[in-house]
Amino acid sequence: MSARIREAIEALEEDTAALNLAPPERVRARGERLRRRRTAGGVALVAVLTVAGVSAGVAATNNGGRDAPSPVGAGATADCGNHMLGLMDRIPEAAITCFLDAVEARRPARLAVTSPTTEGDPIPTLYVVGGDGTVEVTTDFRQDRFGGGQGLLLKRCTGPEVTNGRIMFRQCSSPVPR
Asked: Which residue has the higher pLDDT, 28 or 6?
């Protein structure tokens, strides 16, 4: 080994000697615990939002229960699925098609998507299509540790478009806390 390489290795050892690094096993175990907790919390939250969104969508499409019920099958809510996405993942094409078809046909539908923040915090969003073709978008920011605690927000949107495998809208109301 040359003298320069030996000097570089000694300098590196001196630089890193003061660092208190956790063993790789402990780092992996901590990451795994965080991933399991986030996944479990995200799944539970999506389930709660799904029930709340479907209830709100059904109430909105039949005037809060005061209108006569639709014939069987005519007003059934289409379920476009629950999707857990990674940072760069796209919503599956079949789910997007299901959602856009429901908006165009003015047929009740729901789509649940959980996307992570840059830091990995799960942000569930529930899209509920009403009988008039508008979409209620409920986004839950409560698990976003670095996002300023925006809470649970609802907005009504029209003109859905797909951009990079994500659903965007031409126009939305101002977000309202729920």
From this structure: 6
pTM above 0.85, yes or no: no
Name the residue among 99, 100, 94, 120 with its Cα closest to residue 110. Answer: 99
Residue 166 exposed, middle or buried by CB count within 10 Å (0-12, 13-18, 19+):
middle
Give the span between the Cα atoms of 174 and 178, in whole angstroms.
13
The pLDDT tens digits for 132-162 are: 999 999 999 999 888 766 789 999 999 999 9
What residues have CB less than 8 Å from 86, skipping those under 6 apart? 116
DSSP letter for 141, please: -
CA distance 98 to 93: 9
Burial classification of residue 126, based on how many CB atoms lie within 10 Å of its CB (0-12 exposed, 13-18 middle, 19 or more buried)? buried
| Nearest residue to 45 via CA among 97, 123, 130, 107 | 123
